[in-house]
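Record minuted for everyone:
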Amino acid sequence: MPVLFKAHLFLTLYMTGLIWFVQVVHYPLMGRVGEGFFVAYERAHTRLTSWVTAPPMLLELATGAALLYFDPVSALLQANLAGILMLWASTFFIQVPLHGSLSRAFSPAAHRKLVLSNWLRTALWTGRGVLLLGWGG
């Protein structure tokens, strides 16, 4: 199994585990912080979470694109990169704006939308992880 694939698989599985934690534990518990403390909590969450999500997401995108560059006819690698691009779209067009709204004031509706819409990212990372594990490079 080539090193590039191993690195990509590691990043994908790391993000898969992280997104399940966020989906099942972290995001649901955000609603229990309390309105008086929520804005400070949300701003800290956004700042600190970037340190554990941005580098692996960037590297996952780069390694996914590189894998496809070296094997452009692979349907699996095409689907993998499409999944990564859908993750990025969901992150920047759905989750980031919701976090922006929540960093100004707690809204039960925005919080619910954050939890529900994050299932898309959870499914995409999980599905990609399963595909990559099955392929094995």
In short: The chain has a mean pLDDT of 96. The chain has four helices and no strands. Residues 3-135 form one domain.
